[in-house]
Design brief:
single chain, about 300 residues, alpha/beta, seven-stranded mixed beta sheet, three-stranded mixed beta sheet, 10 helices, 10 strands
Length: about 300
């Protein structure tokens, strides 16, 4: 028998959360296996409480918790503090999951004897989303072969072996307002020897509201991604290595920006991707000045 605790951090998305909980209640599981959903509400007004109270399932237990301090890392840690199952799963409150989601992740874990399994997240654009947003493929996950080793990952579609949480692994509160706490968390597990793989078949979908289909939002996302990557993975500590790192990223920033401008009349989707790469390099360089984009502020 296998037990799974599904951790969901939520903030002022009651409708989407309700849809996700319905999906989780309908998960197909072998007889004897158990599921429990742990919802941690980061809204001081507990806006998701009524959704949790209305949840009904004969097969899935739900635990609702409140974490009022605005900090996504602390919110995720509260969920971890209440986990006790063999496996933990992470999914975002604005996502939808198929009926075989957990079974697919578990099957991949067994096949590759993995400690962590990541899956793709496909964005669900609204019908009136701009054509250039679709052309940019910003919300389309790049296909990766199942079983491909991973060095880091996110908490939007993930299965994790309990022993790491029991051993004290937690999200770093320093990333609680900037984001990137999940990259830091899983990169740390990888460095400690966790076997982490990709599962292409475990696809979940994510609602993309209109305010995310703007160039400003997308470039900010690229910029923050660059900051996270530099902070956690690739900014050299040695002076000479850092100098080369700065020169290389500065050159790529300028090149990306120039190519983005040239691509505008030819392919706006390509122009967005090139501008995004430039914004990512700008984000990496900005960490030298201790600037952090506080997206959860």
């Amino acid at each position: 028998m296998t037990s799974v605790d599904i951790c969901v951090a939520t903030y002022k998305r009651p409708v989407w959360l309700g849809q996700l909980l319905n999906d989780l209640a309908g998960q197909e599981m072998p007889d004897g296996d158990t599921l429990r959903v742990i919802v941690v509400d980061n809204d001081p007004e507990c806006g998701a409480a009524h959704v949790a109270q209305a949840f009904e399932s004969t097969r899935v237990e739900l635990l609702y918790l409140a974490q009022p301090v605005k900090n996504i890392a602390l919110t995720r840690n509260m969920a971890l503090d209440h986990c006790s199952a063999d496996w933990l799963a992470f999914v975002d409150d604005d996502e939808r999951v198929p009926r075989n989601w957990i079974c697919t992740l578990l099957a991949c874990q067994e096949r590759f004897d993995a400690d962590v399994v990541f899956g793709p997240v496909e964005g669900r654009l609204e019908a009136n989303a701009p054509a250039w947003v679709r052309q940019s493929r910003f919300f389309v996950a790049s296909p990766t072969a199942t079983g491909t080793p991973q060095r880091w990952g996110a908490t939007n579609n993930t299965l994790l072996r309990w022993k790491f949480v029991d051993g004290g692994a937690r999200f770093d509160a320093r990333f609680g307002l900037s984001g990137g706490e999940d990259t830091h968390f899983f990169y740390g597990l990888s460095r400690r020897g966790a076997h982490m793989v990709w599962c292409q078949e475990a696809v979940v979908t994510e609602h993309v509201p209109p305010d995310r289909t703007t160039l400003r939002w997308m470039l900010r996302r690229y910029f923050r991604g660059g900051q996270t990557f530099a902070d956690i993975v690739n900014r050299p500590a040695q002076p000479l290595g850092r100098l080369w790192w700065v020169l290389r990223r500065s050159a790529m920033l300028v090149l990306g920006a120039m190519l983005a401008v040239l691509a505008i009349p030819v392919d706006r989707g390509l122009a967005v991707r090139l501008a995004g790469k430039a914004a990512s390099y700008a984000g990496e360089l900005s960490t030298l000045f201790r600037f952090r984009l506080q997206v959860y502020q």
